[in-house]
Structure formats: C-alpha cells, structure tokens
C-alpha cells in the first residue's frame, strides 16, 4: 500500500512542484513500501521450499528478479527514446521558425542541429519532416 501511495503521490507532480514536496517525499514513501514488499514476497516464495532445495529456489528467485528488472528497464528506455525522438521531430522545426538568429545559432552550436554531411555554413535544418528516417526495401543479393 505504501508503494502505491508513493506512486499516486508522484502523479501530482507538475511544473511548479518542488523537489522535496513532489519528488523526495513520494520516493521515500515508495521505497519504504517496496522494501517491505520485497522482504515479505521473498519470505513467502521461500517458505515452503524443502531445506535441500532452498539454494536453488533462492537462485531462481534472484534470477527471475534480475530478468524482470532488465526487461522492464529495456522496455522503458525504448518507449522513452521513441517518444522523445517523435516529440523532437515536432517541436524543433516550430522552435526554429520562431527563434531569433542568435537563438538559431546557439541551438545549432549546442543542439547538434546540422544534418549528416552538412557543413558549418549550411542553414539550420533540424529534423525537417523530409529528413525523417524511412525504411528502404532491401536490395536482392
């Protein structure tokens, strides 16, 4: 229940939130709840295992937790990468249309704005719709 309460509290975070009130507090509540859950779930998973097999059961539990964590992290990273790339493709052209020449220059210097193969004298052309990746059909070998 504490883990769920911590996650629910995190959903209340907005632009004007403070670190202590909207990040630190919920994460402390969440971590306390997860700590209690992991201990109780481990005890429950290993409670009826015969003594000679406790090592194998503990190893299986640990391996399952590691694989679950790895899969969860890889799925989250993939989703974040896709979402951020798609959002950048929509927002960067709008920013460049409204930006002053100084802002464009600064963005070009710090935001890796040039297209592959472009020179320093090329105009900014970040992620124009025509530069989106397209899958090309494979050529027969």
From TrEMBL:
The organism's place on the tree of life at top rank: Bacteria
Protein name: MFS transporter
Primary localization: membrane
Region Disordered, annotated ranges: 99-141
Membrane topology: Multi-pass membrane protein
Biased composition (Basic residues): 130-141
Compartment annotation: Cell membrane
Amino acid composition bias (Low complexity), ranges on this chain: 120-129
Keyword Cytoplasm annotated: no
Gene Ontology BP terms: response to antibiotic
GO cellular component terms, semicolon-separated: plasma membrane
InterPro entries, sorted: MFS_trans_sf
Keywords: Antibiotic resistance, Cell membrane, Membrane, Transmembrane, Transmembrane helix, Transport
PANTHER family linked to this entry: BLR6921 PROTEIN, MAJOR FACILITATOR SUPERFAMILY MULTIDRUG TRANSPORTER MFSC
Organism of this sequence: Streptomyces haneummycinicus
């Amino acid at each position: 229940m504490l883990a769920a309460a911590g996650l629910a509290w995190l959903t209340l975070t907005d632009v004007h939130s403070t670190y202590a009130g909207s990040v630190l507090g919920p994460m402390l509540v969440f971590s306390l709840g997860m700590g209690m859950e992991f201990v109780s779930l481990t005890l429950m998973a290993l409670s009826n295992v015969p003594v000679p097999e406790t090592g194998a059961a503990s190893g299986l539990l640990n391996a399952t937790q590691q694989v679950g964590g790895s899969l969860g992290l890889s799925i989250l990273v993939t989703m974040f990468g896709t979402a951020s790339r798609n959002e950048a493709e929509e927002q960067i052209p709008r920013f460049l249309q409204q930006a002053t020449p100084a802002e464009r220059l600064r963005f070009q210097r710090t935001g890796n704005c040039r297209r592959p193969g472009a020179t320093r004298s090329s105009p900014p052309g970040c992620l124009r719709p025509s530069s989106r990746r397209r899958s090309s059909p494979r050529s027969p070998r």
